[in-house]
Amino acid sequence: AANTAAWLAHAGASVTLVAAVGDDAGGRERVAELVEAGVRCDVRHHPGAATGSVVVLSTPDERTMITDRGAALLLAPADVTAAVEAAPGAGHLHLSGYPLLHAGSRPGGLAALAAARSRGLTTSVDAASAAPLRHSGDFLELVRGIDLLLCNADEAEVLAGPGAPERQAAILTSSARNVVVKRGGDGAVWATRDGVSRLVAGVRVPSLDPTGAGDAFAAGLLRAWCSGAEPEAALTAGAALGAAAVQRVGARP
Predict the structure, then answer these.
(1) Model-level pTM?
(2) Would I find Protein transport among this entry's keywords (predicted)?
């Protein structure tokens, strides 16, 4: 979510990140970096807990992450509800799937979606990662009714089974009103509950580091879609920002 927030700010959006970090140097430094990038941070610092960390092993085409979520597991319903109430001008809430995939942070993630819906915000969830999805049999029930679900090819296969991305996206519209399946350099597909699928080609560019490309794609897509763009235009905007991300080292602009 932090990467998506940074890319949204880079794209000119007004964005607030709601999160939990440790009361440590790592947490303060990460928050300061985001603030400098233009992200408003509504963050709870938890004494005695370590800020979450990620080790990324990357090649030009693939990346593997080793994650310790640390204080992120302490995301509380009261924190996210208060943050939504403190942002009366907000129009959309985007949630990483990670909070929903861990028992400690799940109540906070569900509270965020509920608070957004009660105030008329549109909602989106990024499926996050195929590995934890394989051990979460109720993920689709947890996100049922959201406006947009984003997943990559591996996540789509876990959630909808093998097959063409158009078929996978169509299956997943039983849980979300709109579904985007990302295919990296092969483009992305957008499906709606009315049975309409839209496909855009990928943007082929030299890749230095794929870390954060999905987050950048989500940011570009959300920036466009929340501004009224049609699905094809939103997908194109997402592909452009994702392409920009893989041409640099690191997950943020």
Answers:
(1) 0.93
(2) no
